[in-house]
Automatic annotation (TrEMBL):
<feature type="transmembrane region" description="Helical">
    <location>
        <begin position="112"/>
        <end position="135"/>
    </location>
</feature>
<keyword id="KW-0472">Membrane</keyword>
<feature type="transmembrane region" description="Helical">
    <location>
        <begin position="42"/>
        <end position="63"/>
    </location>
</feature>
<feature type="transmembrane region" description="Helical">
    <location>
        <begin position="13"/>
        <end position="35"/>
    </location>
</feature>
<keyword id="KW-1133">Transmembrane helix</keyword>
<keyword id="KW-0812">Transmembrane</keyword>
<protein>
    <recommendedName>
        <fullName>Trep_Strep domain-containing protein</fullName>
    </recommendedName>
</protein>
<feature type="transmembrane region" description="Helical">
    <location>
        <begin position="164"/>
        <end position="184"/>
    </location>
</feature>
<feature type="transmembrane region" description="Helical">
    <location>
        <begin position="69"/>
        <end position="100"/>
    </location>
</feature>
<dbReference type="InterPro" id="IPR011733">
    <property type="entry name" value="CHP02185_IM"/>
</dbReference>
<dbReference type="Pfam" id="PF09605">
    <property type="entry name" value="Trep_Strep"/>
</dbReference>
Amino acid sequence: MASPNLSLQSKDLITIGIFSTLFFTVTMVAGAFFAPNPLLTYLTPVVVAVFTGPVYLLLLAKVPKRGPTIILGVIMGLLIFITGMFWLWAVAYIVLGVIAGEISAAGRFRSLKLNVLGFCVFSLNPIASYMMIWIDQQAYKAYLVSKGTQPAYMDTMLQAAQEWMLPAMVAGTVLAALAGAAIGNRFLKKHFARAGIL
């Protein structure tokens, strides 16, 4: 197993590319059941966190070095921006990708607890978009409508917002990330053991 301090190799970049594609696919599929509904959309970060956990942890197991979470964050940020989501979501992907990477680096990318903590932080990226509902609804609505979201969708979504929902989304996403990591760890335990993470 290569040292996590080594620079990324071409095979690492290929692996990161593959897992980033998988991460985006899982995010879109999981979110597709909730995001199209203006009332259920608030559950999207929770559901996505559950299903992306195994992908995230396996990526770190495959490439235990500096870089994977940052590259994943940049790729996801660009894709989210291109697909018309609120721009702050894209920024959050990149920023939290950096923070998550530093958390895992503290355990040399082999501490399961720190990798899971990093994933919990990384999973909060959608909150950067949703929190605009409580900060500046009109700017949020105007931006998303300009990107193709139906005004009726936005009106229903904004009318459904309650003060308690934002902290509930944060707490729910963290709990879901822990659940996703637990599911991932269960299926990938043998791999982690061989990699020396457990």
